[in-house]
Amino acid sequence: MSRSAWLAATLAALAAGGAGYWAGHGRPSVTVVLERARTELGLWLPPAVAPVPPTAAPRGPVVYYQDPDGQPVYRLEPARTPDGRDFRPVQASEDVRFDTDDDPTPVSAAEPVAAAGGASRKILYYRNPMGLPDTSPVPKKDSMGMDYLPVYAGEESDGSTVKISPGKIQRTGVRTATVTRQVVHRPLRVPGTLQLDERRVTVVATRSDAFVDHVASVTTGDRVRKDQPLVAVYSPEINAAAAQLIANPGFDGSRRRLQNLNVPDEVIAEMERTRRVPMAISWTAPRDGVVLQRAAIEGMKAAAGDTLFRIGDISLLWVLADVPEYDLGSVKIGQLVTVRVRALPGRTFTGKIGVIYPQVNRDTRTTRVRIELPNPDSVLLPEMYAEVEIATGSDTPVIAVPEDAVIDTGTRQVVLLDQGDGRFEPREVTLGARGNGAVEVRKGLEAGAQVVTAANFLIDAESNLKAALQSMAAPPAQTVEGTP
Question: pTM for the full model?
Answer without folding.
Answer: 0.52
